[in-house]
Input
Amino acid sequence: PTFTSTVRFVMSGGASAISLRPGGAGISLRPGGAGAGGPGVFAAFAMGSRPQAPTESSAKKLNAEDVIKYDADFLRQFQERYKEIPVELATSPVEVVINEVNSEALATMGAEADAQWGKKPAEPAAAAAAAAPEKGDKDWNEKKAADAAKAAAKAGKKAGKVDLTPLPEGTEGATIVKAANAWSRGGADDDTTKVTRAVKSILNKITPEKFDRLMEQLLEAGINTAATLSETISIVFDKAIWEPGFCGMYADVCLRLSKELPEFPGESADGKPMTFRRILLNTCQEEFEGAGKAREELATVSDAAERAAATKRVKMRTMGNIRLIGELFKKKMIAEKILHACVTDLLGAPGSTPPEENIEALTGLLTTVGKELDNSPKLPKEMMEGYFTRLQALADNAALDSRVRFLCREVIELRRSGWIPRVKKLEAMTLGEIHAEAAAAGLMSPAATEEILFPEGPGGSDGIGGDWEMVGKDGSVGDGSSALSGPYVAAKHKAAMPTEKEKAKRDAELRKLAKERAMAAVTGTSTASGASTSSSSAPGAGTWDEEKVEEKCKSAVNEFVQVADVKEAVLSVREILEKAKNAAFALDAVLSAFVTHVVDSSNEKHRDLCAKLFVQLRKESDLNVSESALADAVGEPVAGLDDIAIDTPMAPKLLGGLVASLIIDDALAATFIADSAVGVEDVTYRREYVAAVFKELKARGKKGAGAYAADGGVDVAGLLAGDPEFDSPLAEFLEKSGLKELA
Output
């Protein structure tokens, strides 16, 4: 048998060495004969009668990496004499050589070394060779190849490779043991982390248009511990100072949270409870007092680019905090004396020149709250005059930077102009406000701000019938059964939709007629349109059918929420009742239309407007709006909360606030709370509705929530009791809702 070899190991014996490396010491088996050490005792083997290595003449034609073949007998000649490792390898620090120098390092590296250098462990192969019977030379290669394959497989496992060889039949694989802290999506997060993630998500999406809806989600996010309260305040504070254009909106968020979130037991030595307002004001104070120290630390930053970035961050935080303090003062969350303390601190001692950063912060604060401080009845005029005298001196100080001096002059000019800025600052606005501003600037036509995509046809709410024609594929007029199939062909309308100007003109005429009717009701004279206060116009004597009444109810609701004039809304209701054929149906339709709008719009301002209107309608004796009619109109959607709340999550709170307002103004009796809540089957919605009623009564009522519950005969424990397995305990729910007195 012959062997193909490009071996790179070294064998040595006695004084002579055999190097299988090109240029190695001693006799080399590579073409060229003797190595760098010259010929030695091993030369006899290369020149004897036994199988010879390639001659020197033939070696010149070979390259260093060419294949050389040896037979087994030739290699066995070295077996007895050369049994020790050569000196050059015994002292070599090369990691692939196993010697005393590297044994300690190899023991440390372990499987990592095997995987890195691809070294095959010799023990499994040697053990297999010793256990196998001797078969002779003919299958020696096969046995060696099998042992090498097994060794390679073992080495692969040590190197972290996956063995995909199928197990023998009937063999059980390794049992998978689940770790005690196995990872799962969201499973390792505690309650505080989940609440923090939810708060960040809601605040990232909040806008003036979605404010009410997202605030409800924020209040229901699970802020029920002191830790989550502190984390929420930190998130809101950071959002406010890094987004100065939305600072006013975040101040509204703070105001709402300070009213809705409960207080928690204090951890400080003074024992004061932890409230949203207290922690927020402490955060603002710490940021205000730490601004100077943060600026001093900038001098320790050596890198110029890093120092410039850090300076910008400190300035943004300082100015954002100042603006947030001003906006909180506007919301009555910060006392006026605190504002004066801030102004005095920023101005410094009399006669001194404050740092430019303090002057810039002062101008920002006065720009935000200067109008309120100027008009404050508590503040002496001399104090504001003193502030602006100092500002004027700073504006005339040539030692200051020109930019800072002009900031002082801008604030002085702003006060002289009655605090009306020349350029409107960036603030959060609704889409309606943006469109109105664009229309006023001539950048957008009024018609484009309220584009009608799917107008209602004269024949009905679905646009089919009446004066509208439905056109098919071929342009022929049909019954409308396939109006949207085939290519579009515009229909020829006999009646055109009104433009924005026409709608505005019509609305103005309606308001004019309403005022004329009001004057006629006072003076007893007829209006130009023929309306009168005679007995012929008594309720129920009109000509409007039910369809016309419902149409007029929708128009009255839309006009009322836009104009917000209770007197005009009363006149519109009176007109509907006068001209309706069925006065009882008209009254139910009017009240139901307003309550339905409150739920559909999910707008608290519209809810408060409707509550005022209902109270006024109850006071108008000639309209005969009884308490039972009002209870029926409000009680119907309350009884349907199981379905309504799925699509409108704010419905329980809106209806609860509406009921509370009517009870406070004596338009409904307190007994309505329990009577209406009994119809709600889902305990969750029933609790939300009743809690909303009592929270509003507690906040705005003439007496406490417990007193209203006693007057209405409300059995809180029986009304709000839930399933112990699925619902939280009643005491815990009432405590979270801030209604512990009802427990």
